[in-house]
Specification:
It is a single chain. With 196 residues, the chain is of the alpha/beta class. The protein has helices at residues 69-84, 98-108, 121-125, 151-161, and strands at residues 40-42, 48-50, 59-63, 89-94, 114-116, 133-137, 148-149. Helix 1 packs parallel to helix 4 (151-161). It is globular and about 35 Å long.
């Protein structure tokens, strides 16, 4: 006999939809050492951002949502730590409307780039659908640590990328570093693994 269908709260399951247990989509995050999926997304402030532009420098990629309570708590802490670690680029990938994201950026005075995914397409590529989550991507474009889930682990990724102390010996606090360049404006040369 056939196994009983998964509960659907009394509603028929829509055709083509299966339970999470029956899904083949990876939801456990990408492993350290995996090449980070590239993307090009619209910037909240206009233009586009491609992850490939940041090769040669560490990036902390943070997935957020303007309706996420833990994200709301993370943003001011992330901004404060970002200002103390200008050698590490933070990129926030958010969802939903432009205006509600602009309000969050303004409320928290965010200085790092904020880009918008249409739905969950980049989350799917990175194999995690919750928020807030974060990935540390090294200068070679590889995932450098396991996925960080929640505010404290995301802040720890940024501290790890900055050499462990949350401070940088180059650049001034709050300074925005152009992709591929150091805080002095010169082209950045990738650091070999373990070279810090």
């Amino acid at each position: 006999h056939k196994p009983a269908p998964a509960p659907t709260n009394g509603h028929p399951r829509p055709k083509g939809h299966r339970s999470l247990a029956g899904s083949r989509i990876n939801r456990s995050g990408l492993s350290a050492g995996t090449l980070a999926p590239d993307f090009t997304l619209p910037r909240l402030k206009g233009g586009e951002l491609a992850l490939a532009e940041y090769r040669g420098q560490p990036v902390v990629l943070v997935f957020s949502d303007p309706h996420c309570g833990p994200c709301e708590q993370l943003l001011p802490q992330l901004e404060a730590l970002h200002r103390r670690t200008p050698a590490v680029q933070v990129i926030l990938i958010s969802r939903r409307g432009v205006e509600e994201n602009r309000q969050k950026v303004q409320k928290h005075g965010l200085t790092f780039p904020v880009v918008l995914q249409r739905s969950w397409e980049i989350s799917r590529a990175y194999a995690m659908f919750g928020t807030p989550i974060g990935y540390l991507i090294d200068g070679e474009g590889r995932i450098a640590a396991e996925v960080a889930v929640g505010a404290e682990p995301i802040l720890a990724l940024l501290t790890q990328a900055a050499g462990g102390n949350g401070k940088s010996s180059t650049g001034e606090a709050g300074e925005s570093v152009e992709p591929g360049k150091g805080s002095d404006g010169r082209k950045r040369v990738p650091v070999e693994a373990g070279g810090r």
